[in-house]
Amino acid sequence: MAQYSNLEQALKYYFGYDNFRPGQRQIIEGALQNRDLLVVMPTGGGKSLCFQLPALLKKGISIVVSPLIALMQDQVEALRDNGIAATFLNSSLNPYQTRSREEAIVNGKVKLLYVAPERLLSDRFLPFLDLVHHQVGISAFAIDEAHCVSEWGHDFRPEYRQLKSLRKRYPDIPTLALTATATDRVRNDIIQQLALKQPTVHVASFNRPNLYYEVRPKTKSAYAELLEIIRENEGSGIIYCLTRKKVDEITLKLEHDKISALSYHAGLTDEERSKNQTRFIRDDVRIMVATIAFGMGINKPDVRFVIHYDISRNLESYYQESGRAGRDGEPSRCTLFFGYGDIKTIEFLINQRSDSQEQMIAKQQLRQMIDYAEGTDCRRTIQIGYFGERFPGSCGNCDNCRHPKPMQDWTIEAMKFLSCVARCKERFGMLHIIDVLRGAKNQKINQNEHHKLSTYGIGKDRSLDEWRMLGRSLLHQGLVEQTNDGYSVLRLNALSWEVMRRQRTVSIAVPVVQKITPEYGTEKAAEVEVLMQRLRSLRKQLADEQSVPPYVIFQDSTLKLMAQVQPQTKVEFSKLSGVGSHKLAQYGDKFLAEIRAYRTEQGLLTLEDYSTPFVNSPSETELYTLQLHQQGFNVQEIAQKRNIRPTTIIRHLSDLVEKNQPVDLNQLIPLERQQKIWQVLDTLGDISLNPIKEYLGESYSYDEIRLVRGKWRGQTRKK
Question: How confident is the model over 574-578, as a mean pLDDT?
Fold first, then answer.
């Protein structure tokens, strides 16, 4: 067949590419041999070409089954732009448009027809399909987003199950099933549900090396962090939320913060969603805030970051949604904010399902998602392992690899854990195994007589969280397995036995318990952020003057160092990473002037003072504040006179009190309130302000606490 020697020429002719991506050529050759195929290829890997090019090289028309109107229109538009005869039939067309397209199809003027599964299998459409088969010939059925056929997948659609009837009606027409994500179980389900005949299965690597993965705790500052990510990263971004309400809330906040953003969720009309999606794809707006209804099949290659403001329901969804970043292969960022409140929301949604089996599967998938978020192993090892692909770890492009937790040898604990799985005859899940190890007394243990096992109670020295951390790590490292049937039963494998025979050691990453930093911890972080914004503004101004992107002046990492170190001289400035001799000469004076101006306005101590925990002598700026205080002016009046913020005056006064200077605290805070704060400080010790305020309640202000803490520190040091 002449096509084989000319595949590259055909690729260049139709699509303008010189070479195939990994795996594409073999798949296309299989399609040209009229074989059934199952193709699992990550987002950005070039799945569509695998059925589009064979359609152009074979006689007849290829029918592409696609679940979303937006996806069809997107792909058809791209094909037509390449001069390829493609069309779609869906509910967005009026009767005249439908008739004229059907006429073109029957007359052999179309090579690719996109259609939704509901329309394809309707009583009206099937006779039309028979006519097309008779008149022009159907070269293949391409089932895109084929994971929708499986209830074990992340996006099950019952109408996809009916596609099996195509095989009965057209037994000799080859079928190509394509998806970006599918576990081994989902792959087998696709083959069975679509009645594929001895299909060639092609599974590409799930590794997307250009994507940086990170998980952040979802604290009160989550929105501020989200804003920082948007401002630090150039280009377009997608923010995923669990609910419509949250989508609208985040969109409003971003607009208030001068970030161009649009919403996308099922509460909008089809017209609104379509319009918003088009504006995002065309870069009219930077940010799309969306529920998971958005994005399937979006061919926007330059999404630079995807932020999950809420946790995904399962790892497949997360992999696919986060995978919409960096389809052009350029470095991109995937951030997940993880908070336990989101889990309650998802559990509520799961409990609304009527099918108990579906509920059980969804709960297991959620547990795997939580394990990913809490995991200390390489993010890629966890993600890719979920799809059955082994990855050695140390990817160098995730938070756990770039900022590794210290490794500890937990071989003894692993032996105890795996031995307990064996003694329980590999019939129970992780929580039961941990209960046995920790010597729990409950009905399930008594019923199974597991309190009589030799492993009962041998793990009392470790907490529930520590055993769960070990269990997760054993799963992620492939040292134990878990059934995928909704029951999450632990099973041993060959590597498990190697551990138990002392032929393999087990090391796990253990998070360090963070101590609350006293003194300048939270305050210094806030300072850094304020100064960072000022340095960004200066950088933007200089960039605009030169008509260059801001990162050409200094990268964000260098700005961050400036804000943290706050250099005072050119020598100090030259030592920052990212400052060469040319940039030092060109920009040094301007950035140093901005840093000095900021420090003067804030009445901050010198850098040397920061490195000393306690300074006895008040600075000049503090003495000036003290002088005004002694003249009877209140905090607001002093701030107004000095043209600096009231919070800075409070800091001056608290430092003065701490240095045992004559500040009259009774003038600032009623005595009974001072006494209450003092009692709490005696109880909690010298820690940051947040936990003290939480302890005292909303009626106490940070300013009051800061001032009393200054006096308490001074008195404590005297002792």
Answer: 71
